[in-house]
Give the backbone structure.
Amino acid sequence: MVGSELQNIISREGIQENVPLAPYTTFRAGGPARFFVTPRNEAEFAALVRFLEKRHEKYFVLGRGSNLLVSDKGFEGTVIYTRKMLNRIVKTEDGQGFSAQCGVLLQDLSAQALASGLHGLEFAHGIPGTVGGAVLMNAGAYGSEIKDVLRSARILGRDGQIREVPQKELDLSYRHSAISDGSGFVISAEFVLTPGDPKAIREEMNELMRRRKEKQPLEYASAGSTFKRPAGHFAGGLIESAGLKGTLHVGDAWVSEKHAGFVVNKGHASASEIYAVIRAAQEAVYKNSGVLLEPEVRFLGDFS
Ligand SMILES: Cc1cc2nc3c(=O)[nH]c(=O)nc-3n(C[C@H](O)[C@H](O)[C@H](O)COP(=O)(O)OP(=O)(O)OC[C@H]3O[C@@H](n4cnc5c(N)ncnc54)[C@H](O)[C@@H]3O)c2cc1C
C-alpha cells in the first residue's frame, strides 16, 4: 500500500489520508485528496517524487491553491503540500536579494524586501500564491513579472534530481515557464533586487493594493483572473461584451459584477458549478467574438 510505504519516505506526522482540499484553495471548493503529504525539507520532497515516480503513482504539488480548481470528486492520488514547511527565506550573500523556498508566500517575500529596503517585488505583494506557483506561472501584475527579478531556480526533475537552472533557461513568458507542463518542480528560487527607499516601496505596495481593491472582487473567494489575456484583447472585456458580467451564474458561482475576468464563489459553490460557469463563459465569448479563452486557472481531478 502506498500509505504505509510513504512512511519510509517521510515522517508519519507528514502523512494524512482523505483530506478535504477546499480549505487549501482560494476558491474554497473541491473534494478530498487520497493522500496529503507535507515534506519537512527539500530532501523529503525529492525522495517523495522519486518514490511516486517509481511507483507510477499520480501526484500533484500544491502551494497556496490560489490558481486552482479541485474537482468535487477530489484527487485519487498524493498531494504534496509545500506551503507549511518549505518556507525559509535567506538573504543572498551580497545582500541584494533573497533565496526563498517554494512554499514561501509572495506576500511574505515582498514584506521582507520592504523591511530590507529592496525594490522590485512591490508587484508581488498582492498576489496570494507561493514562490513555487509563481515561478511556474511567471506570475505578474501591473507591468512587472517574476521574470524581472528571478536570477535562478532550483528545479526538482521527475527523476528526483535537483538542478540549479538560470532564469534564461526557464523560458519565462506570459503565464508560462519551461516547467508549466509539469516536467519539474520548484524547490527554491533566487531573486535579485535593487536598493530602494523603504517609504517609496511601501507607498508603491499600498497604491497597487488600493488599485486591486478598487477593481477586483477581493471580498469573494476566487482564483484571481480566471482566463489568460488573449492576444490583442482583455478576457474581462470580451466576457462583458458577451453580456455575462454579473449575470452568468450557476448556483453560487458567478461571473463577478465588479470584474468580468473573475469567476467568484459567492457562498457555497461546488467545483462543478464553478467549472460550469467557466465553460459557459468560454462558449458565449467564442460565439460572440470568435476568441477562445484559455483558462489561467489550473484544474485538478475529474470534471467529466
Ligand atoms: C485574489 C487573487 C488575485 C490574484 N492576482 C494575481 C496576479 O495579479 N497575478 C498573477 O500572476 N496571479 C494572480 N493570482 C493567481 C495566483 O495567486 C498565482 O497564479 C500564484 O502564482 C499561484 O501560486 P500558488 O502557490 O497558489 O499555486 P497553486 O494554486 O497551489 O498551484 C498552481 C499551479 O502551480 C503548481 N505549483 C505549485 N507549487 C509548485 C512548485 N513548488 N513547483 C512547481 N509547480 C508548483 C501547481 O502544481 C499548479 O499546477 C491571483 C489569485 C487570487 C486568488
Remarks:
- The chain has three domains: 2-81, 89-213, 216-300.
- Residues 94 and 192 are 10 Å apart (CA to CA).
- The mean pLDDT is 97.
- The chain has seven helices and 19 strands.
